[in-house]
Amino acid sequence: KMYGEYVKNFDKAVELITAWSEKSPPFQELIADIQKRKVCANLTLQHHMLEPVQRIPRYELLLKDYVRKLPPQSPDRGDAEKALEMIFMVAKHSNAAIAEMERLQNLWVVYQRLGLEDDIVDPSNELIKEGPIQKLSTRNNSTSEKYLFLFNNMLLYCVPKVIQVGAEFQVHLRLDVDGMKVRALNDTQFPHTFLVSGKQRTLELQAR
Fold this sequence. Notes:
- By secondary structure, the protein is an alpha+beta fold.
- It has helices spanning 2-23, 25-35, 45-69, 77-114, and strands spanning 127-137, 142-151, 154-160, 169-176, 181-184, 193-197, 202-206.
- It folds into two domains: 1-94, Dbl Homology Domain, Chain A (Up-down Bundle); 120-206, PH-domain like (Roll), CATH 2.30.29.30.
C-alpha cells in the first residue's frame, strides 16, 4: 500500500522539485551538492526517485523469466510462483492507485470548468461523457448551443459562458439519473433529436 502511495504521488513530487529548483537558487545548490556525493553514483535526485517506481515491474519480469526457466520438478518452483503472484498483486494495486488519482484529477478539472462548490462536488462521482448539444425550442422552431456533462448519478445541462473568466460553463439544470428516461424522436426537420425526461424537467435535444 505504501508503494501504491509512492507511485501515485511520484509525478507531483517530481513537479515540485523541478518548480522549487527554478524558484529557489539555495534549494537548487543543495540538490546539486547532494548529487555530487559518491553515494549518489553521479545520478540525479529524480533518477533515484524513479528507482522504486521501476522496481516492481523489474521484479515481475525477473520472476516471470525465472519461473519459465525452472525445471518442472524444481524444489523452488512453488515459492517462485507464489512470489510472482504476490508481485503481480502489488503491481495491480499500484496501477489501480494511479488510475484512481488520474480519475480524481480529471474530475476536479471538470468541477473547475463548471465553477462548482456545492453538493454536486463529490469525489465519488464519475464523469461518463461530455459534449456540445443543441437545445430545440418548439415555440420559434430554433436551436441554441448548450453543453452536457453526464455523470454516473446526474446530467448537468449547461450554457457556455461568453466571457470565459473563471468557470467555462454555467449550470442551468441538474437532472438526476435515477428515474431518467431517454427517447429518440423521428423529426424530419431536426434529425438526431431525442427527449431526456427526468424528475426535474424534460429537455428536447439535437445531437450532431
